[in-house]
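In this supplementary section we document a worked example of the pipeline. Step one takes a protein sequence of length 620 as its only input; no multiple sequence alignment statistics are reported here. Step two produces a three-dimensional model, which step three serialises into structure tokens for compact storage. The input and output of this example are shown verbatim.
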Amino acid sequence: MDLLLEVRSLNIVLWAEEGKLRFDAPAGVMTDTLRAELGARKGEIVAFLADVDVAERSTVRITTRDGTRLAADVFRPRRRGAVIEEALPVLWCHERYRRAETVDGGLLTKLDSQPWLKEMLRNEYVVVVVDSRGSGASEGSRRIEFSHEEAQDAFEVTEWLAVQPWSSGRVGMFGLSYSGINQLLAAATAPPHLAAILPQMAMFDLYEFLRPGGVFRDDFARNWSDLVRRLDTQSGAAGTGDGPVGTAGYLAGHQDNADVFGQAAALEFRDSVDLATGLAPYQDINPAAARNAVSASDIPVCHLGGWHDIWVRDTTLWFRNLANPQRLVIGPWSHNNWTNEDLAREHLRWYDHWLKGIDNGVMAEPPVRYFTMGAGAATGWKSADTWPPAAACPKALSFGDGSSGTIRSVNDGVLRLPEASADGAGATGGGQDSYTVDYSTTSGRTSRWSDGYAGGFHYELTVNDRKALTYTSAVLSEDLEVTGHPLVHLWVTSTHPDGAFFVYLSEVDEQGASHYVSEGVLRASCRGGAPAPFDRMGLPYYPGTGDAITPLPPGEPVELVVDLHPTSYAFSAGRRLRISITCCDSDNAHVEEDIPAPVITVHRGARHASRVVLPVVPRR
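The serialised model returned by step three reads:
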């Protein structure tokens, strides 16, 4: 660093180009001694420049229609050490979690948290990150998340970027999670200069996320609410050069931000109304409600998701419900675990095609690209023309009696191939398994749900399985690829008029350990289905309105159909499949405890064919 400071003090410009160290120096300044010292440290300097000297950062405030000023970082790429002066395409992110932070006296920007963005700069895109109103260093307040005001801000920012002297007028958007949702809501406003978006892990249905199957994901709601409250109201967001007075001003405005957890906890049904705003959030600000407007915009959309993400089903629903030019990519990732190399490749190909007009073949390929997980020969990246892939066929495994001998669970039941139709409805035999609800069961503190607020991702299901009803297959004689949306049909009775049913799909290895694949949940009183208002791929849709609640009838078996999160997983020969059922996920969802604990019974057989239906891709 001292050497670079010395070079800069002498007005020598250094840059890295194709692995070589280049310089531009005033006459007589580059001495033999200095040249030798630079040559001796060439590799170190080239690596440093290639990583940090890719762009010039500046900060600006963008004023919206109501006078609210949004804080923005502008990164303009360098070429041969100098900022590129010609107009370039612009990529921008509508950021909810601070565009930049001051930490221990240093500055962390989006280039630090998303290193793949440096590849965009090296390929000569301007990168801009804007704090959403009421967050970061932006002014204003937030009465509710996903507001129409926020979407209108995105329209105005897009059009402001398009007319800057360093902009070619071709604007794209990027961003993960909330910033992914913001892209779709921006597209719904149809900014004339928005040329393409790439939402990464974006929610589709707010109700189905917060209350899947009618069960409140209180842990996520509480932790996410605490996170954004801290980010919005405590110092640490990098300012825009307007000093402590400006910082105090925007932080004071953020104090008026809504209590996110309080709002979510009070909104029990899909038609619930938020008293503070008068809105029915699951209808009025639900991202899914913008689907027709997004389609009408015709803005190209590349959906990027992960099999262990909180919104992987949502990613497929966006793809199925838009008519835009589209691409769907799903990798072996969770919400906060992905690879920068994959992200850089996918983003660059998409933007090069739509913002630079490069014919790179991205739209000539099959529109669906997905990764099959597991350890078998079928693992790896694959392509398809549709989602779900047309090659997948339903294969049912029925719950049976007997013992798998693989675990000391409540029942240690088995999964068997039925002797009837593909959906297993004609399964033979009969019987039932009873279970006293255990409120200590949990999928753990590092689930896909906790990973959604950066709580970590790792499953250890074996302990939970020992407290559950389990149904385990025989050892697989060959690899089995499951790609699509598994469905579990449960025929149940209970000593209580309601209950939550958590269902897990896992792979059991040769040592008996259970490895997480997918899950789903349904509250029994919310089981009444209805026609979906959008394309749900034939999967069950539960309206979730207050008038749709139906208690369980005493002693009469009823069918619950649980839609597991989609997956692509190659179960290995020599291993087994398992379905596990509990009535509580204590670390991740809210379940009311009843005393005494209810006893639920899972029925099986020809009349009450409890089963799992797997989308199986035949071996090639």
